[in-house]
Amino acid sequence: MIIGTGIDIIEVERIQRAVERWGEDFLKYVFTPIEIKHAKRFKFPFRHYAGRFAAKEAIFKAMGLPDLTWQSVSIINDPSGKPVCRFHRIDFKKRISISISHSRDYAVASAIVEE
Ligand SMILES: CC(C)(COP(=O)(O)OP(=O)(O)OC[C@H]1O[C@@H](n2cnc3c(N)ncnc32)[C@H](O)[C@@H]1OP(=O)(O)O)[C@@H](O)C(=O)NCCC(=O)NCCS
After folding, report:
1. Where are the domains of the chain?
2. In this structure, are residues 97 and 110 in contact, taking their beta carbons and an 8 Å threshold?
3. What is the pLDDT of residue 112?
4. Where does residue 16 fall: left (phi above 0), alpha (psi -120 to 50 degrees), or beta otherwise?
5. Residue with CA nearest ligand 1 atom 2
6. CA of 78 relative to ligand 1 center, distance in Å
7. pLDDT for the residue numbered 66
8. pTM for this structure?
9. Would you say 113 and 96 are in contact if contact means Cβ atoms under 8 Å apart?
10. Is 2-114 a CATH 3.90.470.20 domain?
11. What separation in Å is there between the alpha carbon of 77 and the centre of ligand 1?
């Protein structure tokens, strides 16, 4: 049974501007080391950062947990490339499915929580 859903969209340029302004401090505040490593593999890393940013916002909306932080969750990719959530320091037993898409200018993500 679905008990929560969330969706988010962000301009890739917004993330790029934040990184240009705040540098590694911004990256390390919002993203976990495995997420930074993933994005840096690509020619256009800001699209991948933006996708993860949108995914985390979608997860926050779907889960509705006030104590969730940017560092509470890593979005990693399974061997097929499909994004999956790995939680850190929080006990979250429910199943959560996410999907990410990005173009040159925008990234979108959705999250579904099931009992
Ligand atoms: C999986 C696939 C559809 C992704 O398409 P894409 O246009 O490259 O994806 P987008 O640019 O919209 O989004 C990229 C995100 O898709 C997600 N993704 C990648 N592979 C995925 C997979 N196998 N399943 C689900 N999501 C996947 C990732 O989160 C990725 O972002 P990230 O690397 O930053 O985590 C494509 O790579 C693919 O394999 N196509 C094969 C053809 C096909 O099966 N088409 C569907 C016919 S119905």
Report:
1. 2-114
2. no
3. 98
4. alpha
5. 81
6. 12
7. 77
8. 0.92
9. yes
10. yes
11. 11
